[in-house]
């Protein structure tokens, strides 16, 4: 049990490291937002391999570290957290990676985009329309989630490393 917990924590740490280190390599500015498809891929991969709450935790830690390092914005939180939550929840319900992809796209593309409006307006001082973030967030989440789907399908069937 302890070895399994350590293995899960180590995997989460590696996913956070990937998310933080790739932030300045694969990011596209769109208005006040930065499109970050790697985070969406990490959300789906974490949701499928570890579950809902680890996916949300990884998204939260990546968002915090990217903001501290200056490679992210406050908009990482509404998009990343909602997408990770729905990816994990829908995967748990449907038991197919496509459900995680759909949860990520809907969670980030619609839910995260709508929650980004008050963050941009009141915390960042940006005047934006209510639906301003829907298209960029949706495009980013689709590209990242589909990439994750390919990765998950390629890794499916391979034996999972045993801790210890």
Indicate the topology.
Blueprint: H1 2-21, E1 28-30, E2 33-35, H2 37-49, H3 52-69, H4 76-94, H5 97-123, H6 134-155
Antiparallel strand pairs: 1-2
Helix pairs in contact: 1-2, 1-3, 2-3, 2-4, 2-5, 2-6, 3-4, 4-5, 5-6
Describe the structure in your own words.
The protein has 164 residues and is mostly helical. It has one domain (2-23, 32-155): Arp2/3 complex 21 kDa subunit ARPC3, CATH 1.10.1760.20. Helix content is 73%, strand content 4%. The chain has a two-stranded antiparallel ribbon. The longest helix is centred in the C-terminal third of the chain and has 27 residues, at 97-123. The radius of gyration is 15 Å and the shape is globular.
- Approximately how much helix is present in the residues? over 70%
CATH class: Mainly Alpha
CATH topology: Arp2/3 complex 21 kDa subunit ARPC3
**Low-pLDDT runs:** none
What is the percentage of strand-forming residues? under 5%
Question: What is the H-and-E element order?
Answer: HEEHHHHH
How many beta-strand runs?
Answer: 2
- Enumerate the strands of the largest sheet in spatial order, edge to edge or round the barrel: 1-2
Instruction: Report the average pLDDT across residues.
Output: 88
Which class best fits the helix and strand makeup?
Answer: mainly alpha
Number of helices: 6
What's this entry about, in short?
The chain is mainly alpha-helical and 164 residues long.
């Amino acid at each position: 049990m302890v070895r399994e917990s350590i293995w899960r924590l180590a995997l989460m740490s590696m996913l956070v490291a990937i998310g933080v280190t790739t932030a300045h390599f694969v990011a596209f500015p769109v208005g006040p937002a930065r499109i970050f498809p790697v985070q969406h891929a990490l959300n789906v991969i974490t949701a499928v391999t570890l579950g809902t709450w680890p996916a949300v935790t990884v998204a939260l830690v990546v968002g915090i570290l990217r903001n501290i390092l200056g490679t992210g914005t406050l908009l990482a939180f509404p998009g990343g957290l909602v997408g990770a939550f729905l990816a994990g929840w829908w995967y748990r319900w449907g038991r197919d990676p496509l459900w995680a992809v759909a949860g990520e796209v809907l969670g980030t593309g619609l839910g995260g985009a709508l929650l980004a409006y008050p963050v941009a307006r009141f915390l960042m001082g940006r005047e934006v329309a209510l639906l301003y973030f829907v298209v960029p967030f949706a495009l980013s989440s689709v590209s990242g989630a589909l990439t994750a789907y390919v990765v998950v399908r390629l890794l499916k069937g391979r034996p999972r490393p045993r801790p210890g």
